[in-house]
Amino acid sequence: MKFKRALIIGITLILLIFLISGCNRAAEMDSANIKAAIEKTEAKPYAHPESLVSAEQLKRLLGQPNLTIIDTRSRDIYEQGHIPGAICFNIKSLSDPNRRGRFTSPKLLSLTIREYGINSTDHIVVYSDNYSHARLWFFLNMYGLNVQMLDGGIDQWLVNGYETAGGRERRPYLGKFKLSDEQLKERAIIETADVAAALEKPEENAIVDARSPEEYSGRGHIPGAVNIPWDQLIKEDQKFKTTEDLEKIFSEQEVTPDKRVIIYSDNATRASYVYFVLNKLLGYNNVKVYDGFYLYWAREKPLLKGTN
């Protein structure tokens, strides 16, 4: 009888030990799963998040005296509804009148942009409904101005249900706006001869075509250039993709931080958009834009059709 009772007690103790250790193991597994889930949801930050402003942040900034919001959409669309206080900027002003497809000079842009009542010291936010604002951002950023891009553009403003204004807004005064070569913070524009030389050293250079796949293969591209269209870099809500997703897109095409990256599109607008992602979101330090590609490269060098 005593043996039977001892046997029962022993078996019960063994079962309790297994039960307790099993619970502890399950708790450890749950803890590990929770930790993994948290790490997965914590997105890697952008290299320079201060270059972006969200719709929520911009809403809180409205009314500040030094804030200038620039809308680069066409005037008729702008007048149908824009962010309150936003100025409608003619993006064609960025083109050199004597060199089609090329950026204008800092002097000419200064004379134009001051007509809008914009000051060089303003906190400038640019936006559109596609990529057109990137070209203005690129130029102002080269000269060290305080300029941000609205993440998601006008779409995000509307999704949040924020109010819009109609008609056209003008400032009744000239701005104090002056850019000069002395202010140039980074010479981020590259010339045809430099692009040609880069082709001779593919291990040190990566060339990115920011146009659509149809343009890349049908109209022709620079030999050796990889096609990364600007709209691959944004989500369905028009906001930029995560750092991890962006890094994957470029690394799969061997566009890595150790190389000099040269980007082009027709008039550098979409190229400026990709430049923003590489330089400001991913932190690539050696990035250049080749403006006027289609007009200038095709004059002297052959274009390759198809997908390489």
Describe the structure in your own words.
The chain has 308 residues and is of the alpha/beta class. It is built from eleven helices and nine strands. It folds into two domains: 49-183, Rhodanese-like domain (Oxidized Rhodanese, domain 1, 3-Layer(aba) Sandwich), CATH 3.40.250.10; 192-300, Rhodanese-like domain (Oxidized Rhodanese, domain 1, 3-Layer(aba) Sandwich). A five-stranded parallel sheet has the order 1-5-4-2-3. Helix 8 (213-218) links the parallel strand 6 and strand 7 (226-227). Mean pLDDT is 88; it is low at 14-20, 25-29 and 34-40.
CATH class of the largest domain: Alpha Beta
Major β-sheet annotation: 5 strands, parallel
Number of strands: 9
- Indicate how many domains the architecture comprises: 2
- Multimeric state: single chain
The chain-level structural class is alpha/beta
- Give the count of helical stretches: 11
The CATH topology name of the largest domain reads Oxidized Rhodanese, domain 1
Overall CATH architecture of the largest domain? 3-Layer(aba) Sandwich
* Helix and strand sequence: HEHEHEHEHEHHEHEHEHEH
Gross geometry: globular
